[in-house]
Specification:
Order of helices and strands: HHEEHEEHHHHHHHHHHHHHHHHHHHHH
Radius of gyration: 25 Å
Strand order of the largest sheet: 1-2
Mean pLDDT: 82
Distance between the termini: 15 Å
Number of strands: 4
């Protein structure tokens, strides 16, 4: 290496450390993770031909183009129909350009089916993805899940044009890929992030909320300018660029990173010590893991917490529309504010938690329990307040926003707790917890539907709020009783078979740089 190249390398090292690059790409990765997941939720409004009243005396309007929908369907079905059952329509974009695109005549059931099939694949790879990341490395699992999800996103418009079934297959495959991404990041943190800095690193997972706040308005604008397919092309292309950067600048361990300085590597390895095994355990001590109260504290708390979160996020528009006659989707600020607030709280609480642990003010156990209690009891109390104040739109908006804002503190609480108690199996633990929580969206939708069926009254929603209050507070109680921040004895199980030294080598020995 020439002297010029060496000087350039040192300048890069001084600008951003390898951990800072990892933090930045992880944050961007989770922003994209959410964008790849919800782009269809935004685009589907424009993808589906709106159902209008055929008796209307005036022409229907389709994305600003005054044309009767029934005439469009009739004309296209006889002349320019497609194999997917869609119809080709013209619309005038925001900049005055006429655009021809295909829209689909799906009914409400078919539309919801397209949106929900993502979770079929998603729930299948949570646990396997976490365990696979422990065995072969989180960098590969997280990176490949995002890479293939980006490619699937790019072909989503093509699948929709081909057939309804093709779109379903692509969405299930997308869920299958993204399901492995969340548990895969825990093994990355186990080998790269010192224990006292892991709360801050885990706050990167909440960048998904930041992604939501950005994705919704950006994709909405894209649709108005270039049609619904543009949302998939943009998010998919950005995902490919991110994947290239991830595989270029992120490595499995500090020992295998070619650009890391000796000082940074030594700092990481000395801080982590023996809590994370360099020779990855070849098996999971299932008996001890499943009998550990600390593990069940994470699983149960995460399941209840996400159930409450999904209910608030997914059912809030229905409550505001049906009961308060207030369309929050038309209020862009309110739509983004809860997501932005949750991310701000995640970052702030994580920095505070790590500061308290660094200073020795609180133990890891006390820190996790304190922030988990705040993140869950506060939304529980907000739900109780909604029982009495929910009929007032101002109070309702304020209380819902505060509930989501406080919930961001879970990153300093239970969310990264698997790294405290068993970093070698943190992917498996979070995979188990996220598998359970994945059903939260289904259960919350069923619960609200059952309680408000043929009775859309505030009294029925008061029952929903009471259930949410009990759920949030129960989650906090479970973690306070069963949770722990202490490293578990089964984190480093004895090997059952001898594994060759070559297969276990993590990297070349650290050499002192002159």
């Amino acid at each position: 290496m020439s002297n010029t190249e060496k000087r350039g390398l040192h300048r890069v090292r001084n600008l951003l450390s390898c951990r800072q690059v990892l933090n930045l790409l992880t944050m961007l990765g989770f922003m994209l993770n959410y964008a790849l997941r919800v782009n269809l939720t935004i685009a589907i409004v424009d993808m589906v031909v709106p159902h209008v009243n055929t008796n209307s005396t005036s022409n229907g309007t389709l994305a600003g183009n005054a044309t009767d929908i029934n005439d469009i369907i009739h004309n296209n079905s006889s002349s320019s129909g497609s194999s997917s059952g869609g119809v080709f329509t013209n619309f005038t974009s925001a900049d005055g350009v006429d655009v021809l695109e295909e829209r689909f005549t799906w009914n409400a059931q078919e539309t919801n089916f397209v949106l929900g099939c993502f979770f079929w694949g998603y729930v299948l790879t949570e646990l396997p993805g976490g365990r696979l990341a422990e065995l072969i490395g989180g960098r590969r699992v997280f990176g490949h899940s995002m890479l293939w999800a980006s490619l699937l996103t790019l072909i989503t418009p093509l699948a929709a044009h081909l057939s309804y079934v093709a779109l379903i297959v692509v969405r299930v495959a997308l869920g299958f890929m993204l399901g492995a991404s969340w548990p895969a990041i825990h093994p990355v943190a186990a080998v790269w992030i010192p224990p006292m800095d892991r709360s801050k690193f885990m706050s990167n997972m909440m960048a998904s909320s930041l992604g939501a706040a950005i994705t919704m308005p950006v994709c909405g604008y894209l649709i108005s300018v270039a049609g619904w397919a543009s949302t998939f092309y943009l998010t998919g292309a950005i995902g490919l660029v991110w994947s290239l950067l991830w595989f270029t600048f992120v490595y499995e361990t500090p020992a295998t990173h070619p650009r890391i300085s000796a000082e940074e590597r030594r700092e990481i390895e000395e801080a982590i010590g023996t809590s994370t095994s360099k020779k990855r355990p070849s098996y999971v001590p299932w008996g001890q893991l499943l009998c550990s109260p600390a593990v069940w504290a994470i699983i149960v708390t995460h399941g209840l917490s996400v159930f409450g979160f999904f209910t608030v996020i997914n059912q809030l528009p229905t409550f505001m529309s049906k009961i308060l006659h207030f369309d929050i989707k038309k209020n862009g600020l309110f739509s983004s504010l809860p997501y932005l607030g949750k991310y701000v709280m995640a970052v702030a609480s994580s920095y505070l938690a790590d500061h308290l642990r660094h200073k020795g003010t609180l133990s890891t156990t006390a820190t996790r329990k304190l922030f988990t209690s705040f993140a869950l009891i506060t939304p529980g109390l907000m739900m109780v307040a909604l029982v009495f104040l929910g009929m007032d739109p101002t109070w309702a908006v304020a209380l819902f926003t505060l509930a989501l804002f406080a919930h961001g503190a879970v990153t300093a609480g239970y969310l990264g707790n698997g790294l405290d108690i068993a970093p070698n199996f943190s992917g498996t633990i979070f995979g188990m917890a996220n598998s359970l929580s994945s059903f939260g969206g289904f259960v919350s939708t069923w619960m609200v539907g059952a309680l408000t069926y043929n009775n859309e009254s505030f009294h029925q929603w008061q029952i929903v709020f009471w259930i949410l209050a009990v759920t949030y507070i129960s989650a906090a109680v479970v973690f306070v009783i069963l949770g722990s921040g202490d490293l578990q004895s089964w984190n480093n199980p004895p090997e059952r078979v001898k594994i060759g030294d070559v297969a276990q080598e993590e990297g070349m020995p650290l050499k002192n740089e002159k």
